[in-house]
Design goal:
The chain is an alpha+beta fold. The chain has 13 helices and 23 strands.
Length: 471
């Protein structure tokens, strides 16, 4: 490793040392191939967990003629973490019966990258520092064993059958091949040991903030900062964790702090530990709507249940219903929306045009099936290019344009089309993103940020999903 790569490891270790002892276990997952030089890693992950709540202890182990895979629980003491890092320096990961390693790149090296705030697939939520070591290309590794189609058919014949490599990766809670990019990868991901929970709320004139803290940590090193939004003013303050009321729940400490907010309906909270920020969260009064569009919509669909059903469980023989639901969701999130797909003489255009407050343009196609059904991706590319040319022609070339395709299917179900969408820089919104977008309807409008974040949903653009958080 060169000095920069060593620095990445050092920075990761320094950061984790600030909350040493916080982790209860590590979830080790990997898929590898048997080559003539021995087992080599396709993708592997060590996920450091601050709590065992919700973590399955069941070990999964899989092997065929050319493929090995596993998911199991390991210790995560400071000594264990040092061992994980020492192995990662050599491109190695712990396995159920020893170790396996990455194949080196063509130049004889491995490359390393450190993300101190979030994993490259994630941009929201609690801090998620991640160290990634990359080896040879996935293509080079796979063809050294067999072609990908032969491997898929080998998996179908296994005692525990899988349809393809992506399905096996999913069984190990790992991303698909398209989502991980071109390289073979080993990563160590550390979940945040402190976060603000969704139980935080404003009721009347009082806000109650709830935080979770890893059991081994010092509540005195936690700090809560907050901004209370009043009409025409903002109050800012912070308190130490020692001001909280704490209780033990399993292997997590749960702390609550009450704040008098008067008539405010919105509070922004920030939690840090040992001087390092870990999470920010919007706390609202559910009785005081912060999005006037949502307030109006509630007259007809109080809990968004009708819209939710139209988006997530559409009737496949009525695709226009799903299209209308997507247009409504975009409107509720603050976009100016035109549903061209419902105007007979304009149906050669895109389904939906969504314009953000800053004037940026989303060109949206909707499908209740696979992404490229009826050549939807090709049509979306063509229509986006025509709109781009027109914007340039009339002097609006400075505005951004993003092609988007929306489906109620999961990202795993449309994996076969993600590579094509990525090549044409099309953002793909799937069931997972629709569910999270529905949650944002009740929050203050932040439409232009949603537009900018959509670029992260382009396959291979550096993020699997902005909202998924299922590492």
């Amino acid at each position: 490793m060169n000095s920069q790569q060593e620095q990445y490891f050092s920075n990761f270790e320094t950061l984790l040392a600030l909350w040493a002892g916080a982790y209860q276990c590590a979830v080790v997952s990997y898929v590898g191939l048997k080559t003539s030089q021995g087992q080599r890693l396709l993708f592997g992950r060590v996920l450091l967990e601050p709590t065992r709540v919700g973590v399955s202890d069941t070990t999964f182990s899989f092997e065929t003629e050319h493929v090995v895979a596993a998911r199991f629980i390991s210790g995560a003491t400071p000594t264990d973490i040092k061992s994980f890092l020492a192995k990662a320096r050599n491109g190695e990961i712990l396995t159920v019966d020893g170790t396996t390693n990455l194949s080196i790149q063509a130049d004889g090296n491995l490359s390393t990258n450190f993300s101190p705030i979030h994993h490259p697939f994630v941009s929201e939520g609690p801090r998620l520092p991640s160290l990634r070591v990359s080896g040879t290309s996935k293509h080079n590794l796979i063809v050294s064993v067999a072609d990908s189609r032969s491997l898929d058919w080998e998996l179908k014949a296994a005692e525990i059958p899988f349809d393809n490599l992506d399905e096996l990766l999913g069984q190990c809670n790992l991303p698909t091949q398209v989502q991980t990019g071109d390289s073979t990868i080993l990563e160590i991901v550390a979940k945040s040991p402190v976060m603000i929970t969704v139980a935080s709320t404003i009721t009347g004139s009082e806000a109650v903030i709830e935080c979770h803290l890893a059991d081994a940590l010092d509540v005195g090193k936690l700090r809560l900062g907050f901004k209370v939004f009043h009409k025409g003013s903002v109050d800012r303050k912070s308190v130490s964790g020692s001001a909280f009321d704490w209780r033990q729940e399993g292997d997590i400490e749960v702390g609550t702090y009450k704040i008098s907010v008067g008539d405010a309906s919105l509070l922004q909270a920030f939690v840090s530990y040992a001087g390092v920020s870990h999470h920010q969260w919007w706390v609202t009064d559910p009785q005081k709507r912060l999005n006037p569009r949502h307030a109006v919509h509630q007259v007809f669909d109080e809990d968004l249940e009708l819209l939710r059903r139209m988006l997530l469980k559409p009737e496949t023989d009525k695709p226009y219903v799903f299209e209308n639901a997507v247009a409504t969701l975009l409107y509720l999130l603050g976009f100016s929306v035109s549903n061209y797909g419902r105007i007979p003489k304009l149906q050669k255009g895109p389904d939906i045009i969504a314009i953000s407050p800053a004037g940026h343009v989303g060109v949206v196609e909707c499908t209740v099936g696979l992404l490229d059904e009826n050549d939807k991706l090709a049509k979306l590319v063509q229509r986006s290019m025509l709109i781009r040319k027109q914007l340039d022609h009339v002097g609006y070339g400075f505005l951004q344009l993003q092609a988007v395709i929306v489906t109620p299917l999961s990202r795993e179900e449309v994996a076969a089309n993600l590579e094509t969408a990525g090549k044409h820089e099309i953002a793909v919104v799937c069931r997972e993103e629709l569910e999270e977008m529905l949650k944002q309807v009740s929050l203050p409008l932040n439409t232009d940020k949603i537009f900018q974040d959509s670029k992260g949903l382009i396959p291979n653009a550096g993020q699997e999903s902005l909202f998924r958080g299922n590492l």
